Amino acid sequence: EKRYDYLIVGAGLFGSVFAHEMTNRGKKCLVIDKRDHLGGNVYCEEKEGINVHKYGAHIFHTNDKKIWDYVNQFATFNNYINSPLSLSKGKLYNLPFNMNTFYQLWGTKTPQEAKKIIDEQIAQYGVKSPQNLEEQALSLVGKDIYETFIKAYTEKQWGKKATELPAFIIKRLPVRYTYNNNYFNDIYQGIPIGGYNVIINGLLDGVDTKTGVDFFEDRIELESLADKIVYTGKIDEFFGYKHGYLEYRSLRFEHELHDIENYQGNAVVNYNDASYAFTRIIEHKHFEFGKQDKTIITKEYPENWDRSKEAYYPINNSRNQEIFKKYKKESQQLEGVIFGGRLAEYRYYDMHQIIASSLVKVEEISKIKPQ
Ligand code: FDA
To answer: Is 142 exposed, middle or buried (0-12, 13-18, 19+ CB in 10 A)?
Structure first.
């Protein structure tokens, strides 16, 4: 008789939602994480009374009422609306691309004036079948927007020239002909009051957890504790990298404490030109309208990834997709192990999507009646 129904490897949103739901269904779960805290990438570290988004800025947004109601069981959300600014060539602009941006860029005041410029630039610089990211962007928004906001930023993000990046990285570049700086189009948006840890603590209330435990350091012992495993770590690591390494893009975060109340007047400022190596500065207190005397900012530097670094963004190219397919096939043949979450599925997910996918997984399993 095993002590647990489920051993859940990874205390991120996928694992925490899974543990919560299964506990509610009378199952016994043990959640482990190799980090020294719960929450995975949504974890916030409290410093000077400010919730610091340790693994990058996290803004919750969704169109799905069911997911919004779900997270609101655990936390109250504030009315934060993401309206990032962009600094490029010494000037500040509003994002996403909208009538404010166009006014700042060209002095245009009406949608007709702005649309005329964009259409003319697309006609002048765009091509019929774009072969790389640069051609794709020029064909979608023209030269000025591309050169001011997209070129250097994308090159910093991916560490490659825009002409060497595939066109499919940018599928659409929405432009808005209204004066609306709300980055997301979703109906629901906000930051949980008290930070994301409030949600994680709510999800894991009454669930056994252990931090600082790496599944691979004690695999046999850990596997012996439970009937089934839910694995949310890297899929290639689970299979001992036997089909090769899946590649990622990494980030380096430099946190700074400043002895002033307000550093940049906004939570997110993007640095879109090439004169800065970082892509953005986050000022965490503005996510929660903080009034502290001090402030904490984070500079976000894109980095090449190696196994000593955190894996942030999967690199979606044919090499990695081929390798991933092999691991996926093996994972489907394996009984007693459920794979889920961004690292096991080798895919970028937003928070609302990862919660939805964990809930779907729980439903799938709960439908299968025991023999
Ligand atoms: P997550 O990585 O959180 O959890 C996996 C856990 O498994 C980790 O804690 C890890 O330590 C653990 N683990 C791995 N291997 C292990 C092992 N061998 N043993 C034990 N533990 C192990 N989304 C959004 O909606 N709005 C936003 O603004 C943002 N912003 C954002 C910024 C940045 C920079 C990134 C990279 C991502 C976002 N996201 C986001 C996405 C969001 O972070 C993501 O959807 C969830 O955190 C994914 O949760 P998971 O549980 O899948 O992974």
So the answer is: buried
